[in-house]
Amino acid sequence: MRTFGMILLGLFSGIGLLTVAGIVGIIYLVSSIEGSIRKPVAAVPDKIIVSIDFDKALVEGSGGPRLEGFNLRSSTTLQEFVVAIRKAKDDKRVVALSANLSNPSVGLAQNQEIRDVIAEFRSAGKPAFLYSETIGEGEGALPTYYLASAFSDIWVQPSGTVGIAGIGTEGFFLKNFLARFGIKGAFVTKGAYKSAPEMFTNTAMSAPNREETEALLGAWFNQMVDGIATQRKLTAEAVKTLIDEGPQTAKEALDKKLIDHLGYRDQFEDALKKDLTGAQSQELKRYAGLSLPGAPAASKRIAVINAVGEIDRTGGDDGPLSDRTGIHADRMVRAIKKAADDSKVAAIILRVDSPGGSAVASDTIWREIVRAKEKGKPVVVSMGDTAASGGYYISMPADRIFASPATVTGSIGVFAGKMVIGDALTKLDINRERIAFGDSAGMFSATSDFSPKDVERLTRMIDATYAEFTGKAAEGRGKSVEEIHKVAQGRVWSGTDALNVGLVDEMGGFLKALDYTKAKIGLAATDRVSLVEYTDSRESWWDILKYFDDSDVPDDVESFFRTAAWFTKTFQPLMQQMEAKGPQMYMVPVGAK
Q1: Does residue 142 share a domain with residue 14?
Q2: How much of the chain is in helix, strand and coil states, percent to nearest 5?
Q3: How does pLDDT run across 398-430, given as a tens digit for each residue?
Q4: What pTM was computed for the model?
């Protein structure tokens, strides 16, 4: 893709800036002419029902490719969602929420953030209606029902089911299976609970792994039971009994007060029209772009930086059409630095949803966060579904850490290793020969196991990384290394338990972190701020768009960029195949996973 980017740059250089400006002008003119013959955009109704479809993607961060700093996506982010619902609570035009839910694609901690903001909305005396064809079709779907229970009025299609059933997990252990083929997992771990390699090295779950898994699942189960009991006005014991009897048919669920109505979608919509006469439905994404009537202008700017996915040192191709999934240290550092150096930015919220990755990359990001604080910028972390290992590492230096009760947190530990296929090659009569200089040249080769000397070397590396991890955790959390070691050792905690052992500061999602950040910079919770997503992209003339409200950006311009996104998605694989790539050398890193 770098070559393709250079070709575009060459074309732009060749035809000149004025020509580029002319092309942009023509595009905008054509868009304007096309827009002038369309039906005019409908005026904002006086009574609004904000419509939500949970079965469509609700994503963490922006994700996807970028074109010169402009985000090319159509999905709604969780941050946009919760901010819009909070705005709807205070918007006199909004009379209700209406949601569709059958197969949501949100994690349990995200689920809790949604529940919290729905509760906020309902606290203003406004109803929240939900329709589901089925909450799990003949299967367990307790987290989905947990989300549904946040609504004041639940409808389910008569033929549907309500999958209120227990939760569980299964681990597969491949040691003996792999041995049949001459394959072996060779790993060194630091921390009794660092269980990620167990599927390759064990024949059964270790006692520490079982302990932490039971604690995590137990915490999740109790959180869902208590949440459902509170919303449906049942006792926790009654909810547990219903779970043991689940899944429930829709009729059974109605009889047991888990839902409020049986009906088809048209009946649900007719009931809304009757109950909310004169109100018009507006999709949440469209509503999010509206200004709150009479609201004062934002007084300060807060940078939002999304750290979503696995962590590595570099994202490879850095062209304008490159895919930006995952957390790439080089790009993340640029984003943090850009926000820290911006005099208009009063504070930084780092949204973390990551299972970890490279220890070196995590440390690089950690250092840039420390530097941002040294420049006088408060840094607040909001954790999503997961902030473990490297995800916790980059959170440690923050001024305050927020987690949801279900957030997978901690896992302060390290492992490294490889899969060994030497015996498999022998079984297949494949001969191998190695030419090497230096005793450690074949240390990470998959064709041979670690020697005792290799294990000693690797253990020293792991110990050093673990010592640095726990040392920085102690510094960030204001504790001794001994105190951190007791809650580290690779163990994951639920957000609630992480609060109890001192790994996070407060329970709450993005909105709670936002309220704290406002207070940190001298604002009240009700004061408006400008939330600006800072990415690694370099400043360009496209960036002028971020200084306008969403409502000020013409639909035609938005349509143009959506077309560009489709083009990128369609042709990027072809462009990648056209690039000539040379041989690459791989070394299994010391992973903070």
Answers
A1: no
A2: 45, 20, 40
A3: 999 999 999 999 999 999 999 999 999 999 999
A4: 0.82
Instruction: Give how far the C-alpha of residue 76 lies from the chain's centroid of Cα atoms, to the nearest Å.
Output: 12
Question: Do 277 and 344 fall within a single domain?
Answer: no
Contacts of 122 (CB under 8 A, 6+ apart): 128, 152
Q: Is residue 220 part of a domain?
A: no
* 327 and 265 belong to one structural domain: no
473 found inside a domain:
yes
Contact indicator for 384, 157 with CB cutoff of 8 Å: no
Cis peptide before 296 (omega within 30 of 0): no
Q: What is the dihedral of CA 196, 211, 403, 498, to 10 degrees?
A: -120
Given 87, 89, 184, 194, the catalytic residue: 194
Rounded-to-integer distance, Cα 398 and Cα 285, Å: 31
Q: Which residues, other chains included, contact 448 with Cβ-Cβ below 8 Å and sequence gap of 6+? A: 420, 422, 442
Strand 70-71 with 66-67, pairing: antiparallel
250, 367: one domain:
no
| Structure tokens belonging to residue 415 | 């492992």
Phi, psi of 413 (to 5 degrees): -170, 175
- The 10s digit of each residue's pLDDT in 262-296 is 999 999 999 999 999 999 999 999 999 888 887 77
* pLDDT given for residue 583 in this prediction: 34
Residue 398 near residue 379, CB atoms below 8 Å: yes
Would residue 43 count as lying in a domain? no
Q: Looking at the structure, do residues 60 and 26 belong to the same domain, yes or no?
A: no
How many other β-carbons are positioned within 10 Å of the β-carbon of residue 586?
Answer: 7
| Count of structural domains within the chain | 3
Instruction: Look up the CATH number of the domain holding residue 74.
Output: 3.90.226.10
Phi, psi of 530 (to 5 degrees): -95, 115
The one catalytic residue in 132, 195, 389, 404 is 389
Let me know whether 405 and 256 are in one domain. no
pLDDT of 575: 43
49 contact partners, CB below 8 Å, separation of at least 6: 94, 95, 96, 97, 98, 272, 276, 279, 280, 281, 282
Do 75 and 107 fall into the same domain? Answer: yes
Say whether 389 is catalytic: yes
Note down the domain range covering 402. Answer: 300-413+455-578
Are 281 and 51 in contact, with CB atoms under 8 Å apart? Answer: yes
Q: Is 300 a catalytic residue?
A: no
Q: DSSP string covering 114-164, please?
A: HHHHHHHHHHTT--EEEEES-BSSSS--HHHHHHHTTSSEEEE-TT-EE--
Euclidean distance between CA atoms 196 and 214, whole angstroms: 16
Tens of pLDDT, residues 483-503: 999 999 999 999 999 999 999
CB 49 within 8 A of CB 280: yes
In angstroms, the CA 214 to CA 168 distance is: 9
Which residues of the chain fall short of a pLDDT of 70? 1-42, 62-74, 138, 315-324, 536-593
